[in-house]
Design goal:
The structure holds 2 protein chains of 2 kinds. Chain A is mainly beta. Chain A is built from no helices and 12 strands. Classes of the chains: A mainly beta, B mainly beta.
Chain lengths: 114, 113
């Protein structure tokens, strides 16, 4: 089975800190994604990547950046954390470009910014 | 983009069959319908996928009428552990931008004892 591993389950950071959320997948998937999930809003796409060093903005990229230096690793960066970035962050990977290939999600990182 | 509409929440009792319907009026010819399940504090996981008629696996069945403008996820004899949020997604099976796939708010299924 494909495994998507997020480095932390829970994080507490202070306002203004630079925060790194790490995600690693072990099945050579080309596509990787970062979502955030908030009550009543479902999953919202922040950034995604189709290949190493490639990235595209999702629906809510403001305040975030990403890095994909290796195929298996996709990092989400909060340049200067703010309280409105308190959320559950979910990383996902997918082997191909279409829905038919299916997403595999990590267990999520619950980030609290104080 | 095929927008989907699902009920926000549903309640059921243990042992009952649960049917969750998703509307997708502007589904495209190449689009497939996929359902995901999400438990609290976990990422969504794939349940079932189909294109038309009926698909069944060990977890659920998916019914898709001929016009494909809706689909129904059927969970047989639910248990307390089926309490979760269920998402319906519609998109091209082989290609397409991730931006085109939105999970929406899903349907919160609560199974009562």
């Amino acid at each position: 089975d494909v495994k998507v591993t997020q480095s932390s389950r829970y994080l507490v950071k202070r306002t203004g800190e630079k925060v790194f959320l790490e995600c690693v997948q072990d099945m050579d998937h080309e596509n990787m994604f970062w979502y955030r999930q908030d009550p009543g809003l479902g999953l919202r796409l922040i950034y995604f990547s189709y290949d190493v060093k490639m990235k595209e903005k999702g629906d809510i990229p403001e305040g975030y950046s990403v890095s994909r230096e290796k195929k298996e690793r996709f990092s989400l960066i909060l340049e200067s954390a703010s309280t409105n970035q308190t959320s559950m962050y979910l990383c996902a990977s997918r082997i191909g470009g279409g829905l038919g290939y299916g997403y595999t999600f990590g267990s999520g990182t619950r980030l609290t910014v104080v | 983009l095929a927008k989907t509409t699902q009920p926000i929440s549903m309640d059921s009792y243990e042992g009952q069959e649960v049917n969750i319907t998703c509307s997708h009026n502007n589904i495209a010819t190449n689009d497939y319908i996929t359902w995901y399940q999400q438990f609290p504090s976990q990422g969504p996981r794939f349940i079932i996928q189909g294109y038309k008629t009926k698909v069944t696996n060990e977890v659920a069945s998916l019914f898709i009428p001929a016009d494909r403008k809706s689909s129904t996820l059927s969970l047989p004899r639910v248990s307390l552990s089926d309490t979760a949020v269920y998402y319906c997604l519609v998109g091209d099976a082989l290609s397409g931008s991730a931006r085109q796939l939105t999970f929406g708010s899903g349907t919160q299924l609560t199974v009562l004892p």
